[in-house]
Amino acid sequence: MTLDLLSSALRIATPLCIAAFGELLCERTGLLNLSIEGNMLLGGFVGWIFASATSMAAVGLILSAFCGAVTGVIFWILTDIFELPQHITGLGLGFISQGLALTLFRLLPSSLKNPLSYSGSENASIASAFVLTLIAALLLGRWAHTRHNGVRWNIMTRSLRAADLLGVDVRTGRLYAAILACTTAALAGGVLSVLVVRNFTIGLISGRGWIALCLVILARWTPVRLVPAVFLWALLELAALHAQASGLRVGYELLIAIPYMAGLMVLGLRARSGTPATLLQHYRRSEDAA
User: Fold this and answer.
1) What is the CATH number of domain 2-288?
2) 281 and 274 Cβ atoms separated by less than 8 Å
3) Cα–Cα dist 22/176, whole Å
4) CA distance 290 to 280
5) How much is the average pLDDT of 177-206?
6) What CA–CA distance (Å, rounded) separates 257 from 253?
7) Cα separation of 77 and 255, whole Å?
8) Which of 17, 22, 67, 262 could pair covalently with 230 via S-S, beta carbons 3.0-4.6 A apart?
9) Alpha helices in the chain (DSSP H)
């Protein structure tokens, strides 16, 4: 029973942890990526269709990540070069990605809309992905507070001008951050469709992108706090599902809403704590470095 519970928690937590990790790093450079929901859906579609065509899950995951990287470059160009509003640009790219995924899915013939076959290694792959994300979060947290370059990078959270004066290439750093955020979001969608659900459906993501954004706030933009926040959400969602399966005479919609209500309560207490000072700021080197 304990192993089943852990397996279920990992299946819920892993895609969220991957998506939230990239978003956290992106927001620490001052970029707010609101395209995460659409990136996850497009990445889920690309991963599923190529994994189905090649019978290789790795191919699907790699191509879903590549798709996200392309979106990240577009997001960076629009927000950091042309200085368009980050929230509007992110939402727009998210809707475009979502519409593209759903349109391509509807254009597919019914004969191709089949679930992926199970190979027996899905749980091990999910666990490996989660462990790698956990290790990355721990290493990044240590690097950002103990290494010289990490400390300089960490200053971007507080002041873009100070980071520039210390020799940090702010523009390049934000490019990498935008690519990472969109890549991890698309990869999370690929993990969800290729390893967890083993299929693509219109409701595949169902708000998980927005949950990842909330988890970044809950973790107070700190990598080492992200994993406990993700697991807390996973356990809340599991509790709601088990309550429904046990025949509890409560409306299905109310049970599903319980984790979201709990998340909102916690966010209300922590929303003002740890917010990056540079979030939503444009970077103008001629002014900031003056």
Assistant:
1) 1.10.3470
2) no
3) 10
4) 20
5) 93
6) 6
7) 42
8) 17
9) 2-27, 36-54, 57-76, 86-107, 122-146, 148-154, 160-165, 170-191, 208-218, 223-245, 252-270, 285-288
pLDDT, tens digit, for every residue of 4-45?
Answer: 777 788 888 999 999 999 999 899 989 999 999 999 999 999
- Over its C-alpha atoms, the chain yields an Rg (Å, rounded) of 19
> Amino acid identity of 22?
G
- Reduced 3-state DSSP string for 58-106: HHHHHHHHHHHHHHHHHHHHHHHHCCCCHHHHHHHHHHHHHHHHHHHHH
d(CA 38, CA 163): 31
Does pTM surpass 0.85?
A: yes
| Residue among 11, 71, 36, 66 at smallest CA distance from 191 | 11
| Short-list 43, 195, 193, CA closest to 121 | 195
- A 10 A CB-CB count for 83 gives 12
Give the other-Cβ count within 10 Å of 62's Cβ.
Answer: 17
190 vs 177: CA distance, rounded Å: 20
Query: Torsion angle of alpha carbons 90, 93, 97, 98, nearest 10°?
Result: 60
C-alpha to C-alpha distance for 3 and 178, rounded to whole angstroms: 36
Residues in the chain, overall count = 290
CB contact set of 277 (below 8 Å; sequence gap of 6+) = 157, 158, 159
Q: 196-199 long-range contacts, Cβ below 8 Å, gap at least 24?
A: 196/11, 196/14, 196/15, 196/122, 196/126, 198/115, 198/116, 198/117, 198/118, 198/122, 199/48, 199/114, 199/115, 199/116
Q: Give the separation between CA 150 and CA 36, rounded to whole angstroms.
A: 26
Structure tokens at 274: 């740890």
Of the chain, the end-to-end C-alpha distance in Å amounts to: 61
